């Protein structure tokens, strides 16, 4: 048994606890501990990615209880990829935060670590109830992080976010309860076997529970009827928190991919791939409404929050198509959209700091102190997020469009994605011209550009370029991921071999 | 017993949803609490309703499933923490926005 599997959960947990215990210690010490723990996740998740790429499923049985009886952690290519995405995003967000944003409220670093622990745990667990527990850990940390910095706007957005997610948790428990009541197991691989073997009498209840889960994950992933909390929450969060939240919607998406390829996947009889029929129209509508929201947004932060919704729609389309190529394309796009969205949220804060009371509102404001640096970064980020060549967003969208053969689906997806990209470009160029060109003559001299912050923002955005240069290895990795997800026999072996590796 | 149990769940959930839709923070918190009671009872019932049986396999022909009880305990602990958090947040919201409406402002008349 490889103990490194549980380290992405243990490191943030111990770091977070240490930071809570040492709450009275100096800010410098807390920053060091937090940075050390987060940066440690980078080599660790790199190693786990290498381990997962060997093609063998890594299973860690907590307490050495064999698979269907105890809780297992499961590392496959998908979870390893998402762990790396989270570690990279978390490191840059924290690098940004230690330049001063962490002092705007209490216990920022402890909460940040617990947030990372919850996210990593959700990606690693192989048990449905354990997934619920990690969801709650990441949620309660995110509630507090969202309120970090205080102010009426954050409290307003936070209250909606908290109440909605509490209702979501109730639905999650109902769905898990029904699934357990029928299949008698909580282990996802075991549940997949039981669902495949379930009689026709149980199919209706299992289907209802499965769709309840879709509602819960949809609330986290923020797709169409359930995304209304997102723009306000993301737009009002502090910059490093908003950047970290770029991966939160991906937790919902990860859960959708996991549950609907494994439990309700190809083998589930009458319930096979039942989510796809729902996800397809939802994906297209989410994309459309996200773009409309982006066009209508009154502030740069609001615009970026709607672009997160757009990326959710694009990703869901890839998941809903259901083929391996489309899933691989969606995963490629997922890596790109998480990092670039995070970088843009950091950039929006850098811009807003130089505009005083106008903040990031898209109205005429004072001239920026560093229009060239920030303007070029904005130009770069806008190209990346809109999906124009030569940056990574273009490749993600191209792969997605090419994964469809000509037919009705392509007829629907192509115009929505392409017109959506065009409108995104329009929204971003309108925002950019207002922020950088429609400015007054006077500058605010209060805001100095902090090079630490600039480095974090630049680092995250330039990953888009890195993704272009490393497109070939990443693409072969995500293609292997997609085919591994559809190779259900591999997951069955966890239960059928019954024992530990 | 099933009928009484089901009716209890139904009434709890219906009351919870009604309170949740009142859009004032205190009724909303109460509504969330009622819903979480209903969910906990529901989880408990997923181990099947039996009275007077042991939770040990092999002691008798029928046994009560202990796992849902463990799940309910976990859910209660988490629900308790979340309720405490949302109460504090609701108080903070009243302090910051001077209203107990969940939107942070009084609806237009």
From TrEMBL, chain A:
Keywords: Cell membrane, Membrane, Transmembrane, Transmembrane helix. It comes from Pseudomonas guineae. This is Multisubunit potassium/proton antiporter, PhaD subunit. It is a multi-pass membrane protein. One of its GO terms (molecular function) is NADH dehydrogenase (ubiquinone) activity. The chain crosses the membrane at residues 6-25, 32-51, 57-75, 80-98, 128-147, 159-183, 203-229, 241-263, 278-296, 303-321, 327-352, 373-391, 411-433, 454-478. It is found in: Cell membrane; Membrane. NCBIfam families: PRK12666.1. Residues 126-404 form the NADH:quinone oxidoreductase/Mrp antiporter transmembrane domain. One of its GO terms (cellular component) is plasma membrane. Pfam families: Proton_antipo_M. One of its GO terms (biological process) is ATP synthesis coupled electron transport. Belongs to the CPA3 antiporters (TC 2.A.63) subunit D family. InterPro entries: CPA3_Na-H_Antiporter_D, NADH_UbQ_OxRdtase, ND/Mrp_TM.
From TrEMBL, chain B:
The chain crosses the membrane at residues 6-21, 28-47, 67-91. Signal peptide: none annotated. The keyword Lipid biosynthesis does not apply. Keywords: Cell membrane, Membrane, Transmembrane, Transmembrane helix. GO terms for cellular component: plasma membrane. It is a multi-pass membrane protein. The keyword Membrane applies. Its main location: membrane. It is found in: Cell membrane. InterPro entries: CPA3_antiporter_subunitC, NUOK/Mnh_C1-like. Belongs to the CPA3 antiporters (TC 2.A.63) subunit C family. This is Multisubunit potassium/proton antiporter, PhaC subunit. It comes from Pseudomonas guineae.
């Amino acid at each position: 048994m490889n103990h490194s599997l549980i380290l992405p959960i243990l490191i943030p947990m111990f770091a977070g606890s240490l930071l809570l215990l040492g709450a009275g210690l100096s800010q410098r010490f807390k920053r060091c501990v937090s940075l050390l723990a987060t940066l440690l996740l980078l080599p660790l998740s790199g190693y786990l990615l290498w381990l997962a790429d060997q093609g063998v499923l890594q299973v860690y049985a907590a307490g050495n209880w064999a698979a269907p009886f105890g809780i297992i952690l499961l590392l496959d290519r998908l979870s390893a990829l998402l762990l790396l995405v989270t570690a990279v995003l978390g490191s840059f967000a924290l690098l940004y935060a230690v330049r001063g944003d962490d002092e705007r409220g209490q216990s920022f670093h402890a909460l940040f670590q617990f947030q990372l622990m919850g996210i990593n745990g959700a990606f690693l667990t192989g048990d449905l109830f354990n997934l619920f527990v990690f969801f709650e850990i990441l949620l309660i940390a995110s509630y507090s992080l969202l309120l970090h910095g205080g102010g009426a706007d954050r409290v307003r957005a936070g209250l909606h976010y908290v109440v909605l997610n509490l209702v979501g948790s109730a639905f999650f428990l109902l769905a898990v309860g029904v699934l357990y009541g029928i299949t008698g197991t909580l282990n996802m691989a075991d549940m997949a076997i039981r669902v495949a073997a379930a009689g026709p009498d149980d199919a209706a209840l299992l289907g209802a529970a499965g769709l309840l889960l879709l509602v819960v994950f949809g609330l986290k992933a923020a797709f169409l009827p359930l995304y209304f909390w997102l723009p306000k929450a993301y737009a009002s969060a502090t910059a490093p928190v908003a950047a970290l939240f770029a991966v939160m919607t991906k937790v919902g998406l990860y859960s959708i991919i996991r549950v609907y390829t494994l439990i309700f996947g190809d083998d589930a009889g009458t319930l096979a791939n039942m989510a796809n029929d729902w996800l397809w129209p939802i994906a297209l509508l989410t994309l459309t409404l996200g773009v409309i929201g982006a066009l209508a947004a009154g502030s740069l932060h609001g615009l970026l929050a709607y672009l997160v919704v757009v990326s959710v729609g694009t990703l869901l389309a890839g998941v809903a198509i259901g083929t391996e190529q489309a899933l691989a394309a969606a995963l490629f796009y997922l890596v790109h959209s998480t990092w670039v969205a995070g970088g843009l949220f950091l950039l929006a804060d850098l811009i807003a700091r130089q505009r005083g009371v106008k903040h990031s509102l898209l109205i005429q404001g004072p001239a920026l102190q560093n229009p060239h640096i920030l303007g070029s970064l904005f130009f770069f980020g806008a190209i990346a997020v809109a999906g124009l060549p030569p940056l990574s967003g273009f490749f993600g969208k191209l792969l997605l469009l090419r994964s469809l053969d000509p037919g009705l689906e392509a007829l629907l997806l192509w115009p929505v994605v392409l017109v959506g990209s065009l409108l995104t470009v329009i929204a971003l160029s309108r925002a950019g011209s207002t922020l950088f060109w429609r400015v007054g003559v006077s500058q605010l001299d209060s805001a100095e550009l902090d090079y630490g912050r600039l480095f974090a923002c630049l680092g995250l955005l330039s990953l888009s370029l890195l993704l272009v240069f490393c497109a070939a290895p990443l693409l072969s990795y995500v293609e292997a991921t997609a085919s591994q997800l559809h190779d259900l026999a591999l997951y069955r072996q966890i239960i059928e071999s019954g024992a530990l590796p | 017993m099933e009928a009484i149990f089901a009716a209890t769940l139904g009434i709890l959930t219906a009351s919870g949803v009604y309170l949740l839709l009142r859009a004032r923070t205190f009724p909303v918190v109460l509504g969330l609490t009622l819903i979480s009671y209903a969910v906990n009872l529901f989880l408990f019932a997923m181990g099947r309703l039996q009275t007077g049986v042991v939770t040990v396999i092999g002691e008798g022909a029928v046994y009560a499933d202990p796992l849902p009880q463990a799940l309910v305990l976990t859910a209660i602990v988490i629900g308790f923490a979340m309720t405490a958090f949302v109460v504090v947040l609701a108080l903070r919201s009243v302090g910051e926005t001077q209203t107990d409406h969940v939107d942070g402002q009084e609806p237009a008349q």
